[in-house]
Amino acid sequence: MLFWIFAAFLTLVAACAVLRPFTVRQDAAEDARAHDIEVYRDQLGEVERDAKRGLIGQQEAEQARAEISRRILQVSYTAGDRVENTANRRVTRLTAAAAVLAIPLVSWGLYVLTGSPGMPAQPLHTRAPAGPADAPIGDLVARAETHLAANPDDARGWQVLAPVYMRLGRFADAQTALKNIMRLSSETADLKATLGEAMVGAARGMVTAEAEGIFKQALALDPKEPKARFFLGLARAQEGATEDAQTIWRGMLDNLPEASPWREAAQQALAQSGGGAASARGPTEGEVAAASDLSETDRQAMIEGMVTGLDEKLRENPSDLEGWRRLIRSYIVLQRPEAAKKALERAVAAFGDKAPESAELKGFAANLGVTIE
After folding, report:
1. Is-annotated flag, keyword Repeat (predicted)?
2. Closest by alpha carbon to 34, among 104, 87, 82, 86?
3. For residue 167, is it within any domain?
4. Which of 53, 88, 114 lies at the terminal end of a domain, its last residue?
């Protein structure tokens, strides 16, 4: 209610300001005309006195009387026009006043009829998400970036943002975040390997010379760092040194625990290079050994069968995030990038384009060189 009282007051003040020029009387002009007539009458009196004294001749006196009379008539005529136009000015004032007052009355009436004056106020804090967990990922990232722009030495902030950048496929930003973490804390093997992974992602799956140097730095800090070992094997494979790559990946399988996510990556890479079999669910050591004894045709058929089985299970249970990862990676192993792209599209459709799972899968697939619009 207080708002409407304040709004009505402001409207009244504005209307009065607009109407003021129409209500001011022209008293100054009237006073000027009266003064002029009085002066001319005094001049006539002086002419008469000068003529009686003989200071001016009769002809000159007549000419002076005529000129002064003409000026008096001119002033009187102007005043008469003003009297005649008073009615017109009054109509103009009334019209202006009606127009100025009609604007707020009409606008308020239309709002009452078509608006929602009874709707309660909705301040920003009541419309904002209840908590960070309810906000979109883009808003959270933007908040974090704003905070870090003002506090670039907040190591914890960079630590939170770096993996998000990786999942979103923003590899250049991930590199910046990882370098800031190492600048503010310490250079660990895991951080170095993740930095190299971001470089590979930015290069669309190619292990560049710079990334290879970073992976070697990671192994210097920890010779068993699995991520660095895997990508160094990938670098050898991309250079055509397939046997060297297979040696690195087999060494990983000998040392990695069964629960390590890098076991499956090494197995897939071995299968792609012809050094072992891939399995949609992660083959056992016996399966790998059996597949290595098969012919190339039989081995390919075995892999295709496993991938087909995983594809069918995902059609029945499309909420299996890890299953979608395995399927996409399997198609890359089989050198079927279009099938991997279609699998990614199906997964995003299943989870929803804005879902965190979809963002994570897009970042994962981008590391393998698979992207969608």
Report:
1. yes
2. 82
3. no
4. 114
Q: Give just the sign of the alpha carbon dihedral 240, 244, 247, 253.
A: negative
- The string of pLDDT tens digits covering residues 3-23 is 667 666 777 777 677 666 666
The pLDDT tens digits for 151-163 are 999 999 999 999 9
3-class DSSP state for residue 3? helix
**Boundary-marking domain end, from 114, 142, 169:** 114
| Residue 371 lies inside a defined structural domain of this protein | yes
Nearest to 275 by CA among 294, 255, 254, 260: 294
Q: Are 260 and 282 in contact (CB under 8 A)?
A: no
User: For residue 322, what are the domain limits?
Assistant: 276-373
Does residue 33 belong to any structural domain of this protein? yes
The pLDDT assigned to 283 comes to 43
Compute the distance between CA of residue 210 and CA of residue 190 in angstroms, rounded to an integer: 17
Q: Which residue has the tokens 């399988």?
A: 253
- Could you write out the three-class secondary structure of 263-294? HHHHHHHHHHHCCCCCCCCCCCHHHHHHHHCC
- Chain-wide mean pLDDT for the chain? 78
Q: What is the DSSP letter of 132?
A: G
Classify 242 as helix, strand or coil.
Answer: helix
- Alpha carbons within 13 A on the beta-carbon side of 261: 6
